Amino acid sequence: MKYWLVKSEPFKYSWNMMLKDKVTYWDGVRNYQARNNLKSMKKGDFVMFYHSNEGKEIVGITKVVKEFYQDPTTNDDRWVVVDLKVFKSLKRSISLQEIKGDNKLTDIGLIKQSRLSVMEISKQHYDHIIKLSNEI
Fold first, then answer.
1. H-type helices in the chain, by residue range?
2. Structural domain tally of the chain?
């Protein structure tokens, strides 16, 4: 099992929209590295949902329920999607500012490759963020 993080601008597709839809395909990825990450996702992998630009925070967890297939929003066969299903909302959102200030997260891709929209994260980073979100 692997762990991932996907980014979405809330005005385009927010966590609240994800909660309403319950399952969605993750489309619109037009970066080769992010596309390759989608292709590496396996059914059952956990995926953190990050609000980019507005909020700049991890707000929830999804799971991969269908592995990559052709992006239905384009006829260009270079681009793919995966299906994600809501797993849970975080008890407390974890902001980018908090992540940047945490010495256990200094090498997370969210900081190192800040413009990448789909990235793998380590189990250690995933577990630490979950722990932080459960602290009140």
1. 15-21, 32-40, 96-100, 109-112, 123-134
2. 1
Whichever domain contains 58, its CATH number is 3.10.590.10
Predicted confidence (pLDDT) at residue 136 exceeds the cutoff of 90: no
- By 3-state DSSP, what share of the chain in percent is helix, strand and coil, each rounded to 5? 25, 35, 35
Give pLDDT tens digits for 34-44: 999 999 999 99
Q: 91 falls in which pLDDT band (50, 70, 90)?
A: very high
Q: What is this structure's pTM?
A: 0.96
Q: Which of 36, 42, 37, 43 is nearest to 5 (CA)?
A: 37
For 113, the token pair is 């490759």
Give residue 75's domain range: 3-134
